[in-house]
Amino acid sequence: MTISPDVAAESTRTPRRQRLRHYAMTPPTFFTVEYAINPWMDISTPVDVERAVAQWQNLRDTYRRLGHTVDVVDPVPGLPDMVYAANAGLIINGVAIVARFKHAERQGESVAYANWMDEHGHHPVATRHVNEGQGDLLVVGSTILAGTGFRTQPQAHAEVASITGMPVVSLELVDPRFYHLDTALTVLDETTIGYYPPAFTDDARTRLRELFPDAIEVASTDAYVLGLNAVSDGKHVVHPAQATGFAQQLDRAGFHPIGVDLSELLKGGGSVKCCTLEVFP
Protein backbone atom coordinates (compact mmCIF):
# COMPACT_ATOMS: atom_id res chain seq x y z
CA MET A 1 0.00 0.00 0.00
CA THR A 2 1.30 3.46 -0.91
CA ILE A 3 1.19 6.07 1.86
CA SER A 4 0.68 9.65 0.74
CA PRO A 5 3.25 12.25 1.89
CA ASP A 6 0.59 14.00 4.01
CA VAL A 7 -0.33 10.80 5.83
CA ALA A 8 3.33 9.91 6.30
CA ALA A 9 4.03 13.34 7.79
CA GLU A 10 1.04 12.96 10.10
CA SER A 11 2.26 9.57 11.32
CA THR A 12 5.72 10.90 12.26
CA ARG A 13 4.55 13.95 14.20
CA THR A 14 5.65 14.19 17.80
CA PRO A 15 2.65 13.90 20.15
CA ARG A 16 2.03 17.22 21.90
CA ARG A 17 0.42 17.52 25.31
CA GLN A 18 -1.38 20.48 26.75
CA ARG A 19 -0.56 21.74 30.24
CA LEU A 20 -3.07 24.15 31.74
CA ARG A 21 -1.55 27.54 32.45
CA HIS A 22 -2.11 30.58 34.64
CA TYR A 23 -1.85 33.97 32.95
CA ALA A 24 -2.20 37.62 33.97
CA MET A 25 -3.34 40.24 31.47
CA THR A 26 -4.12 43.96 31.50
CA PRO A 27 -6.77 45.41 29.18
CA PRO A 28 -5.68 48.22 26.81
CA THR A 29 -8.17 50.70 28.27
CA PHE A 30 -5.60 53.52 28.13
CA PHE A 31 -3.57 52.22 25.19
CA THR A 32 -2.11 54.78 22.82
CA VAL A 33 1.15 55.45 21.00
CA GLU A 34 2.25 58.78 22.43
CA TYR A 35 6.01 58.14 22.43
CA ALA A 36 8.39 55.98 20.38
CA ILE A 37 10.74 53.67 22.26
CA ASN A 38 10.95 50.88 19.69
CA PRO A 39 10.94 50.77 15.85
CA TRP A 40 7.32 49.65 15.69
CA MET A 41 5.97 52.78 17.39
CA ASP A 42 4.90 55.75 15.25
CA ILE A 43 3.29 58.60 17.14
CA SER A 44 1.65 59.83 13.92
CA THR A 45 -0.34 56.59 13.54
CA PRO A 46 -3.78 56.77 15.17
CA VAL A 47 -4.87 54.06 17.60
CA ASP A 48 -8.39 52.66 17.68
CA VAL A 49 -8.76 51.89 21.40
CA GLU A 50 -12.16 50.25 20.98
CA ARG A 51 -10.71 47.85 18.43
CA ALA A 52 -7.64 47.23 20.58
CA VAL A 53 -9.88 46.29 23.51
CA ALA A 54 -11.94 43.94 21.32
CA GLN A 55 -8.80 42.23 20.03
CA TRP A 56 -7.45 41.88 23.56
CA GLN A 57 -10.76 40.43 24.78
CA ASN A 58 -10.64 37.84 22.01
CA LEU A 59 -7.14 36.81 23.14
CA ARG A 60 -8.27 36.54 26.76
CA ASP A 61 -11.33 34.54 25.76
CA THR A 62 -9.20 32.23 23.60
CA TYR A 63 -7.09 31.31 26.62
CA ARG A 64 -10.17 30.69 28.73
CA ARG A 65 -11.75 28.49 26.05
CA LEU A 66 -8.58 26.40 26.12
CA GLY A 67 -9.07 25.91 29.88
CA HIS A 68 -6.44 28.34 31.17
CA THR A 69 -6.80 30.67 34.14
CA VAL A 70 -6.59 34.38 33.32
CA ASP A 71 -6.23 37.03 36.04
CA VAL A 72 -7.09 40.55 34.90
CA VAL A 73 -4.90 43.35 36.26
CA ASP A 74 -6.50 46.78 36.47
CA PRO A 75 -4.95 49.26 34.01
CA VAL A 76 -3.60 52.58 35.29
CA PRO A 77 -4.20 55.91 33.51
CA GLY A 78 -1.01 57.36 32.10
CA LEU A 79 0.60 53.94 31.53
CA PRO A 80 -0.40 53.15 27.92
CA ASP A 81 2.03 50.23 27.58
CA MET A 82 0.72 48.42 30.66
CA VAL A 83 -1.24 46.19 28.26
CA TYR A 84 2.08 44.47 27.53
CA ALA A 85 1.85 42.50 30.76
CA ALA A 86 4.67 40.09 29.92
CA ASN A 87 7.15 42.88 30.64
CA ALA A 88 5.90 43.15 34.23
CA GLY A 89 8.33 40.60 35.60
CA LEU A 90 9.00 36.90 36.07
CA ILE A 91 6.87 34.94 38.55
CA ILE A 92 8.34 31.52 39.35
CA ASN A 93 9.53 29.38 42.24
CA GLY A 94 7.53 31.36 44.76
CA VAL A 95 8.99 34.77 43.93
CA ALA A 96 8.11 37.58 41.56
CA ILE A 97 11.02 39.44 39.99
CA VAL A 98 9.58 42.87 39.24
CA ALA A 99 10.63 44.59 36.04
CA ARG A 100 13.08 47.46 36.14
CA PHE A 101 12.38 49.27 32.88
CA LYS A 102 15.00 50.97 30.74
CA HIS A 103 12.78 53.80 29.57
CA ALA A 104 11.31 56.39 31.93
CA GLU A 105 7.96 56.20 30.12
CA ARG A 106 7.39 52.67 31.42
CA GLN A 107 8.87 52.83 34.91
CA GLY A 108 5.51 53.47 36.56
CA GLU A 109 4.41 50.02 35.42
CA SER A 110 6.87 48.46 37.87
CA VAL A 111 4.99 50.01 40.79
CA ALA A 112 1.57 49.01 39.45
CA TYR A 113 2.57 45.41 38.82
CA ALA A 114 4.53 45.08 42.07
CA ASN A 115 1.39 46.14 43.94
CA TRP A 116 -0.66 43.54 42.06
CA MET A 117 1.93 40.83 42.72
CA ASP A 118 2.03 41.66 46.42
CA GLU A 119 -1.77 41.63 46.69
CA HIS A 120 -1.83 38.17 45.11
CA GLY A 121 0.88 36.65 47.31
CA HIS A 122 3.66 36.56 44.74
CA HIS A 123 6.37 38.15 46.98
CA PRO A 124 7.83 40.79 44.64
CA VAL A 125 11.59 41.38 44.61
CA ALA A 126 13.62 43.87 42.58
CA THR A 127 16.85 43.63 40.61
CA ARG A 128 19.56 46.29 40.65
CA HIS A 129 19.94 46.17 36.87
CA VAL A 130 17.46 46.65 34.06
CA ASN A 131 15.25 43.63 33.42
CA GLU A 132 12.10 43.72 31.37
CA GLY A 133 10.41 40.61 32.68
CA GLN A 134 9.17 37.91 30.36
CA GLY A 135 9.93 40.16 27.44
CA ASP A 136 13.54 39.02 27.91
CA LEU A 137 13.22 36.11 30.38
CA LEU A 138 11.64 33.01 28.85
CA VAL A 139 11.32 29.78 30.81
CA VAL A 140 11.93 26.55 28.89
CA GLY A 141 11.89 23.45 31.06
CA SER A 142 14.17 24.09 34.04
CA THR A 143 16.17 26.81 32.25
CA ILE A 144 15.67 30.52 31.64
CA LEU A 145 16.61 31.94 28.24
CA ALA A 146 17.58 35.56 28.79
CA GLY A 147 17.77 38.23 26.13
CA THR A 148 20.02 41.26 26.11
CA GLY A 149 21.25 43.84 23.62
CA PHE A 150 18.48 46.43 23.72
CA ARG A 151 16.61 46.32 27.03
CA THR A 152 17.57 43.87 29.79
CA GLN A 153 21.15 44.32 30.95
CA PRO A 154 23.38 41.22 31.01
CA GLN A 155 24.18 41.87 34.69
CA ALA A 156 20.52 41.21 35.46
CA HIS A 157 20.88 37.66 34.17
CA ALA A 158 23.13 36.73 37.10
CA GLU A 159 20.66 38.36 39.49
CA VAL A 160 17.80 36.34 38.03
CA ALA A 161 19.80 33.12 38.34
CA SER A 162 20.53 33.88 42.00
CA ILE A 163 16.94 34.77 42.84
CA THR A 164 15.30 31.83 41.06
CA GLY A 165 17.98 29.18 41.56
CA MET A 166 17.66 28.32 37.86
CA PRO A 167 20.36 28.27 35.16
CA VAL A 168 20.21 31.28 32.84
CA VAL A 169 21.39 31.21 29.22
CA SER A 170 22.28 34.67 27.86
CA LEU A 171 21.35 35.43 24.26
CA GLU A 172 22.29 38.69 22.56
CA LEU A 173 19.91 40.37 20.11
CA VAL A 174 21.25 42.51 17.25
CA ASP A 175 18.24 43.72 15.25
CA PRO A 176 16.35 46.64 16.88
CA ARG A 177 13.07 45.40 15.41
CA PHE A 178 13.47 42.47 17.78
CA TYR A 179 14.23 44.46 20.89
CA HIS A 180 12.96 41.83 23.35
CA LEU A 181 13.70 38.12 23.29
CA ASP A 182 9.98 37.31 23.05
CA THR A 183 9.79 39.07 19.68
CA ALA A 184 12.41 36.74 18.17
CA LEU A 185 11.92 33.47 20.08
CA THR A 186 8.97 31.52 21.43
CA VAL A 187 8.91 28.57 23.82
CA LEU A 188 6.68 25.81 22.44
CA ASP A 189 7.18 23.13 25.09
CA GLU A 190 9.84 22.06 27.59
CA THR A 191 12.27 21.04 24.85
CA THR A 192 11.13 22.92 21.74
CA ILE A 193 11.43 26.52 20.62
CA GLY A 194 10.82 28.55 17.50
CA TYR A 195 13.11 31.46 16.65
CA TYR A 196 14.34 33.87 13.99
CA PRO A 197 18.12 33.34 13.59
CA PRO A 198 19.01 36.76 12.04
CA ALA A 199 17.82 38.50 15.21
CA PHE A 200 20.74 37.01 17.17
CA THR A 201 24.52 37.20 17.25
CA ASP A 202 26.53 34.32 15.81
CA ASP A 203 27.36 33.13 19.32
CA ALA A 204 23.70 33.16 20.35
CA ARG A 205 22.66 31.23 17.24
CA THR A 206 25.33 28.63 17.91
CA ARG A 207 24.14 28.24 21.49
CA LEU A 208 20.51 27.87 20.42
CA ARG A 209 21.37 25.22 17.85
CA GLU A 210 23.32 23.30 20.48
CA LEU A 211 20.46 23.44 22.98
CA PHE A 212 17.56 23.01 20.55
CA PRO A 213 18.63 21.04 17.45
CA ASP A 214 14.97 20.50 16.51
CA ALA A 215 13.97 24.17 16.81
CA ILE A 216 11.61 25.70 14.27
CA GLU A 217 13.47 28.43 12.37
CA VAL A 218 11.01 31.06 11.17
CA ALA A 219 11.28 33.03 7.94
CA SER A 220 11.51 36.82 7.74
CA THR A 221 7.94 37.12 6.43
CA ASP A 222 6.57 35.75 9.70
CA ALA A 223 9.16 37.36 11.96
CA TYR A 224 8.37 40.81 10.55
CA VAL A 225 4.75 40.55 11.76
CA LEU A 226 5.99 39.51 15.20
CA GLY A 227 4.83 35.98 14.47
CA LEU A 228 7.12 34.59 17.16
CA ASN A 229 5.43 36.69 19.83
CA ALA A 230 3.30 33.67 20.60
CA VAL A 231 2.08 31.66 23.61
CA SER A 232 2.05 27.86 23.80
CA ASP A 233 0.52 25.50 26.34
CA GLY A 234 2.53 22.60 24.95
CA LYS A 235 -0.09 21.72 22.34
CA HIS A 236 -2.00 24.84 21.30
CA VAL A 237 0.05 27.79 20.06
CA VAL A 238 -1.75 31.14 20.04
CA HIS A 239 0.05 33.38 17.55
CA PRO A 240 -0.45 36.50 15.43
CA ALA A 241 -2.83 35.54 12.62
CA GLN A 242 -0.64 37.16 9.96
CA ALA A 243 2.14 34.58 10.59
CA THR A 244 0.68 31.98 8.22
CA GLY A 245 3.99 30.33 7.35
CA PHE A 246 4.79 29.82 11.03
CA ALA A 247 1.32 28.31 11.49
CA GLN A 248 2.10 25.74 8.81
CA GLN A 249 5.43 24.92 10.47
CA LEU A 250 3.67 24.46 13.82
CA ASP A 251 1.08 22.19 12.27
CA ARG A 252 3.76 20.02 10.67
CA ALA A 253 5.49 19.76 14.05
CA GLY A 254 2.33 18.45 15.70
CA PHE A 255 1.18 21.64 17.41
CA HIS A 256 -2.28 23.19 17.01
CA PRO A 257 -1.83 26.79 15.78
CA ILE A 258 -4.51 29.32 16.68
CA GLY A 259 -4.18 32.66 14.91
CA VAL A 260 -5.54 35.81 16.53
CA ASP A 261 -5.60 39.36 15.23
CA LEU A 262 -3.77 41.84 17.46
CA SER A 263 -2.95 44.30 14.69
CA GLU A 264 -3.96 47.32 16.74
CA LEU A 265 -1.60 46.38 19.58
CA LEU A 266 1.19 45.73 17.08
CA LYS A 267 1.31 49.53 16.67
CA GLY A 268 2.98 49.64 20.09
CA GLY A 269 5.44 46.88 19.22
CA GLY A 270 3.70 43.96 20.88
CA SER A 271 1.44 41.03 20.17
CA VAL A 272 0.23 37.80 21.82
CA LYS A 273 3.09 37.08 24.22
CA CYS A 274 3.64 40.72 25.06
CA CYS A 275 0.06 40.82 26.35
CA THR A 276 0.48 37.66 28.43
CA LEU A 277 2.35 37.29 31.72
CA GLU A 278 2.59 33.62 32.66
CA VAL A 279 2.41 32.86 36.37
CA PHE A 280 4.54 29.76 36.89
CA PRO A 281 4.02 27.46 39.90
UniProtKB/TrEMBL annotation:
The keyword Transferase does not apply. GO terms for biological process: arginine metabolic process; citrulline metabolic process; positive regulation of nitric oxide biosynthetic process. Keywords: Hydrolase. The active site is at residues 180, 274. GO terms for molecular function: amino acid binding; dimethylargininase activity. SUPFAM superfamilies: Pentein. InterPro entries: DDAH-like. It holds the Pfam family DDAH_eukar. Belongs to the DDAH family. This is N-dimethylarginine dimethylaminohydrolase.
